[in-house]
Design a protein that fits this description.
The protein is about 55% helix and about 5% strand. α4 links the parallel β1 and β2. The longest helix is centred in the first third of the chain and has 30 residues.
């Protein structure tokens, strides 16, 4: 069955189920006792809510029918392809720099090849932190040189057991025909020095387009263009436009090293992204067999392995692992993936379709957008490579998760302004003009992207989930004034479809305990979402309209929780919800009849700080190795974990860390 037919059947069943749900809602209303306006409103609200929720059972059915196994895309030889391992960072502290460059070092050494280079594209502001980035890069270069030199000497002595097997395959075997004394005397220093110089940092001049602009400029530098021509037109971008022909990067040896080398691919990564050993080789092999794809999207695995990792982090990793089969099935069903902002991009296709040329710029990504990946995915047809994965740490606790979600919500609101430029965009721009006054900067998109049906469905996924929150709250409030024959049937069905039914496709004998734990945790975490999600959405809209909203960095919150009592910190950040729940609960008990649903929501809202405090506790080291950590067999000291995934017992591998003064590598 071809993709179009599968998609047609999928959405056809979805529409039928949604229509059936609406019919049941109509029959469930006791029209003899209910005001017609209230009845119609609740049917509309329930229709939207249940229509959105129907996505979960549809994905569940798809998983049961076509299987949730990980698909392994076709592969081909990739020896001729070159790739940039691109980490992107806007550092606010030295700790962030250390963590990012440690991840980049692990990624580079775990995927060592003459065709792979690593570069940190920095948008860091303070000169002190920029200098520190250069300092740490130099220290890692020394480590690269020393480690490779030791391996090279072992190779010359034919002591192959002490050499990293991937390094032996992709590097040292290239010199197996060279006489060993000549190799050490004439080749080894140059080899080690060349690889050390391929570990780089470049500092961007302008912050236009944020992270997306960082790797766009990197691609252009690789193509041989080191002066800005994108996002320079004040007619489109007003005061946000950057000067035409401004240097893309501050001049440096690393900038000159990248200039004009025309790398085939860029593996775009965040500072906290881990790249397992051999991941790059697998991605390039998949790309070689699928040259028409502009993005190869690996899976993103959440990992937990440290005794300091919190219960919340383990729950998040567990949740992702449980739902992974559904992701695999849906991606296989559609034959297309979303772009998660961390993936391998084919530079030529990206430049041709997204950036354009100096003579004919395209600039398809809006200059002010945060969720740039949606526009890129619509043009580049990402291929989901679920058999290959990148690693990422989950949010530290509910507070940092909520901060991240609020930032993402702001990005989704901006997307809505471009997706529906007349219905949403015009209104938001008008309000922005009134709020910001002289600070308002009118911007517009140079080249619009037209999404096909599948791309639209994938692109709007986060928007659908975000809008479920206000509709859920609206239902909880309205249902009190409507006489329903089965008062709680609708919401029970919604919660069942979201929390329980998907488990039919993912629960098995090996993970049923974790499924039960995740379900209980989800009840405590997501039942208050009708209120918390709406607060998040309001703040996201306020931020887009220009209000002075304070955004707290996630790392600062993590450091606060680590340095103090987690229960007190939870109360500090979430006390308002508990106070609101108490006062609202008293009012509901005194003046509202048949408000059990509302009371349940308020009770879980009241206990949200307690839930956050409990799940902010570190998970026991004794049990750590047995936790269901993202289905990648990660435990303390296990393989494929950034920072420690090469243990000191492995031949040819070293353990990297920073000493207490945060300046030297040990």
């Amino acid at each position: 069955m071809n993709r179009n037919k599968r998609v047609f059947i999928f959405f056809g069943i979805w529409i039928l189920l949604s229509f059936f749900a609406i019919l049941l809602n109509v029959l469930n209303v006791d029209w003899t006792k209910t005001n017609y306006i209230n009845g119609i409103i609740i049917i509309v609200v329930l229709g939207v809510l249940q229509g959105s929720v129907m996505e979960f059972p549809m994905q569940t059915v798809a998983t049961l029918l076509i299987g949730g196994d990980t698909r392994d895309p076709a592969k081909a030889r990739c020896d001729r392809f070159t790739l940039l391992l691109n980490y992107n960072l806007l550092a606010l502290s030295k700790d962030e720099i250390e963590d990012c460059l440690d991840n980049m070092f692990q990624a580079f050494m775990g995927n060592l090849s003459p065709n792979v280079s690593a570069v940190l594209v920095s948008a860091t502001g303070p000169q002190e932190l920029k200098d520190y980035e250069i300092e740490v890069v130099q220290k890692f270069r020394s480590l690269i040189y020393d480690q490779l030199f030791q391996e090279g000497v072992s190779f010359a002595k034919n002591d192959l057991d002490t050499i990293n097997s991937a390094h032996l395959e992709h590097l040292w075997k290239l010199y197996e025909d060279v006489e060993k004394s000549v190799f050490v005397r004439e080749y080894l220093h140059d080899i080690c020095d060349r690889f050390a110089r391929e570990f780089m940092v470049v500092h961007r001049v302008n912050r236009v387009l944020r992270k997306c602009g960082q790797y766009q400029d990197l691609m252009l530098l690789s193509e041989g263009d080191d002066l800005a021509f994108t996002y320079c037109d004040r007619v489109y971008y007003g005061s946000d436009a950057r000067p035409y022909s401004e240097p893309l990067f501050h001049d440096s040896e690393d900038v000159n090293n990248i200039f004009g080398r025309k790398f085939d691919y860029t593996l775009v990564l965040d500072g906290d992204t881990g790249v397992p050993d051999g991941c790059v080789y697998d991605l390039l092999s998949i790309a070689a067999a699928n040259p028409e794809r502009g993005i190869i999207q690996p899976a993103i695995k959440l990992y937990c392995n440290d005794q300091t990792d919190t219960v919340f982090m383990h729950i998040e990793a567990m949740r992702q692992s449980i739902y992974e089969p559904m992701t695999n099935a849906v991606m296989a069903l559609f034959g297309q993936s979303a772009y998660f902002g961390k993936a391998m991009i084919k530079n030529k296709i990206y430049i041709d379709r997204v950036i354009g040329t100096r003579e004919s710029p395209i600039e398809r990504v809006p200059i002010d957008v945060l969720s740039h990946d949606t526009f890129e995915a619509a043009l580049l047809q990402p291929l989901y490579a679920g058999s290959v994965y990148l690693l990422e740490a989950p949010s530290y606790n509910f507070v940092t998760w909520n901060i991240r979600e609020r930032r993402w919500n702001r990005g989704e609101v901006l997307l809505a302004m471009y997706f529906w430029k007349n219905a949403v965009g015009r209104l938001m721009r008008w309000i922005q003009r009134k709020v910001k006054r002289d600070r308002f900067n009118a911007t517009k998109l140079r080249t619009e992207s037209h999404l096909d049906f599948v791309s639209s469905f994938i692109a709007y996924a986060a928007l659908r989930q975000m809008m479920m929150k206000p509709f859920l709250l609206l239902y909880v409030l309205i249902h009190i004034s409507v006489h329903l024959r089965y008062r709680y049937a609708s919401i029970i069905i919604v919660m069942f479809l979201v929390l329980v039914f998907p488990k039919f496709a993912t629960c098995n004998k090996k993970n049923y305990k974790y499924v039960l734990i995740e379900t209980i945790a989800s009840i405590f975490q997501f039942t208050p979402e009708a209120i918390v999600g709406c607060v998040r959405l309001v703040k996201a809209v306020q931020a887009n309209l220009g209000a002075n909203i304070k955004w707290i960095p996630q790392r600062a919150v993590e450091d606060e929780f680590k340095a103090s009592n987690c229960f007190l910190s939870s109360l500090k950040h979430l006390w308002g919800y508990s106070v609101f729940a108490i006062f609202s609960g008293i009012i509901v008990i005194l003046f509202v009849e048949q408000a059990l649903l509302l009371l349940v929501m308020l009770i879980t809202l009241f206990f949200l700080p307690l839930y956050t405090g409990v799940t902010s506790l570190p998970y026991s080291k004794k049990e750590e190795g047995h936790f269901y950590a993202a289905n990648v067999e990660i435990a303390t000291g296990a393989a494929n974990t950034p920072g420690i995934y090469r243990s000191t017992e492995e031949p040819g591998c070293i353990n990297i860390g920073f000493d207490d003064d945060k300046h030297s590598v040990v």
